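Journal club prep, shared notes

We agreed each person brings one worked example of a sequence with its structure written out as tokens. Mine is SasN. I'm keeping it raw so we can talk through how to read the token line rather than staring at a rendered picture. Sequence first:
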Amino acid sequence: MKRACFSLLLCLVLGTPVWAASGLDAPRTEAQEARARVRELREHQQALRAELNTLAGRIEQLKAEQKGRLVAGPELQGALRQSQELSGQLTGLAQSLAGAESDAERKNLTLHTALSAELDRVRAAWDATSDRQARAGLIARMRALRTERDALRSALPPSQVLAPPSLATSDDSEDLLEQADALRDSEDKVRERLKTLRARLTEVREERELDRRMSDFLGEESMFDEQDRRLNLRVDGSGTVSVNATPRLGGGGLFSSREEAIPTLPDLTVGDSSPIPPANPPPSPGAPGTGGGVGGNPGPSEPPGSSHSPPPRVSHQASDSRPQVGTVRAQALASDAVDDVRALEQEAARLESLARELGARAGSLERRARELR
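Then the structure, token by token:
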């Protein structure tokens, strides 16, 4: 009777890998198909990008050949139309690729969970049998499952596989130590990623501080440099008075010279109290050759019956050469750099919490393994 029960138990143990393989076939096939779909979409995307780059070069060549023409030729129009179509295809393909990658990630995670569950079942079968031949087969099976799971883990995001769902309930000290080692490895990966993230956060903060200091420095240089801050007037003969602002230098007065900021034409300062001479002064009476004879009679150079034309009015054009201060810092404060720093800080806090949790779980397993020894 005992021999029959032992034979039945041995058959069940030896048949476990076959049942496990059949249970893993479905998630493994789905994961392989999802990965193949992602690979196919990426290859198609690369081909479209290469075609679009080639077409862009052709468009530039056609534009250079048709320089000066008001209407584009049929070949250029066709190339532009094809470029728009390729851009639309790339946009749709990018959306499809994002969906395929998300689906492949879900399928890989499902397969990873199935492999972990199958590994637990094989380990339980190894603990339940005492036959050396059966144990050797189960050990080979566990090694194959671990190899496949580790290869799959590298394709998953760290946040999906670093935190185990729960602590193991095994009573074997060696098994507990093995699980604790896996948790320590996961903790080391999280710490390494956290170190890289903190380095990036420090770099972003230093860049922002440098931008702020440079903006303050440029503002101070623009306020206390040697540029002329007077409003200058330019005299012309248009008959109107207009004020036009001169183009401002984007960086302030640090890299600009006085000659670049002040107009080279002769100017008259607004604060000058002397009258502005007209462009064409009116003729004075009695001047020879100007038609200003005595009694208003036309001079010898004017035909009889002609009248004096009114003198042209004088136009005064003002230019503001004062530097512009404080725009760089306002643009920096209006950007989304603050949101980037805040997101990096939140991610660093999450990774720090995950690392502490993994360390606590590993320590608990190690204490339990020492108690069982």
